[in-house]
Amino acid sequence: MNWILVPAAAAAAYQLVSLAASLKHLLSPPPPGGPLPPVSILKPVRGRDPHFFEAIRSHALLDYPEYEILFGVRDADDPALEDIRRLTAEFPQRAIRLVRGGHDAANGKVGLLMRLAGEARHPVLVVNDSDILVPPDYLQRVAGPLMAPGVGIVTCLYRASADTWAGRWEALGIATGFAPSVLVAPLVGVREFGLGSTLAFRAADLARIGGFAALADYLADDYQLAKRITSLGGRPVMSKTVVETFLGETTWSGVWKHQVRWARTIRVSRGGGYAGLPVTHAGLWALAALLGGQPLAAAGLAALRILAGVVGGWGVVRSRLALAAAPLIPLWDLWAFAVYAAGLGGTAVEWRGERLRLGNDGRIVREPRGNPAALRPPRTGPPASG
To answer: Domain 30-251 adopts which CATH fold?
Structure first.
C-alpha cells in the first residue's frame, strides 16, 4: 500500500470525528439552566478595536434581569474611553462602571481583570474580549447553565468578519478549522477548554483557584482559567450561542504574526496536543495523496474536509464565508500547516504591539522594543491590557 494513504486515512478519520462533533453540537438540546443569577461582565480594554462601540453597545442591550458591566483601562488617554463614556450616556439606566488602573502582572489584561474582579458586585462573572458582539439572550445562554449541578465554566464559539482579504482568509480558518476543532475537545473527553470570546464562572470558584493572580504570568489566560476551574471538579459547557468579532488585521503579515502567536502559545501550553495538529490538516494530506499518485483518495479527502468545514463553519457558527469560500477550505490547511511549522520553533510572539517571549510552561517574559536581545522578567510596573 502506498505509504501516503496512512496519514491520509488518519486525516479522514479526524474529519469524521470533527463532523460528528459539529452534528452533535447542532442536534443536542441547550444546556439546562436554573434561576438567572446576577452577573458582573468584566471587560479589560486597551485601545479602540474596529467596531468597538457596536460591540460594547450590544452588552447594554441584553435581555437579563440584573447585571453590571465593568470596563477596565490602564491609561487616562486610552481612545476607548470616548466610546465607554458615550455608552454610559446613552444607557444611564444600566449599571456601567469604569475602573482605571490594574494590578502588577506580566499579562496586562490579567492585571486589569484582577482589579475588575475586586470591584465586581455579583456572584457570577463573565469575561469576554473587548471586541466581542453578543446577541440579546447572551447572558441567559452563558450564565444560566452555571446554575445546573456540576457545571464549572461556560464558554462559547465565535464567528469572525473582516474588511480585507487577509482578514477574511483568517476568518475562514476560524470558522472551518478552529471552531470544529474546539467542538472535538468535549467529544473526546477533554475538560480544560475555554475561549476568550466568553468565560462564565462563579466568583467563588475563581477565589478557590487563587483569583486572577494565579494567571498573571501566562499568555493563554483563557486556557489557564478553564484548566484551573475544571480541576475543581466542575465540567465545562459549550453554550449554543455564538458571538461575533471583527478582525482588525489589515495585512497578510499581520495575520501571519497573529496565527504564529496562537501556534506558539498552544505549543507551550499543550505540547502533546500541538504535536498531533498535522492530522487535522486534511488539505495537506489530500495534496500529498494527489502527488503520490492517489487521485481518488485525494479527491475523497478534500471533499470530506470541505463537508466538515461547511457543517462546522456554517451549520454551527453561521459564517457566510464557510459557504462562499468552501472550495478554499483545503487550501487553508496548507496555510495552517505552514503556521504549525513556524510554531514548532521560537519563543517570540507579538501581542498588542509588544514583543514577548514565551517560557516552556506558557509564562511570558517581555522584550523591550528596539532591543530584542535584552530580556527582563515579568513586568512589575502598571499593566498593559491585552
So the answer is: Spore Coat Polysaccharide Biosynthesis Protein SpsA; Chain A (3.90.550)
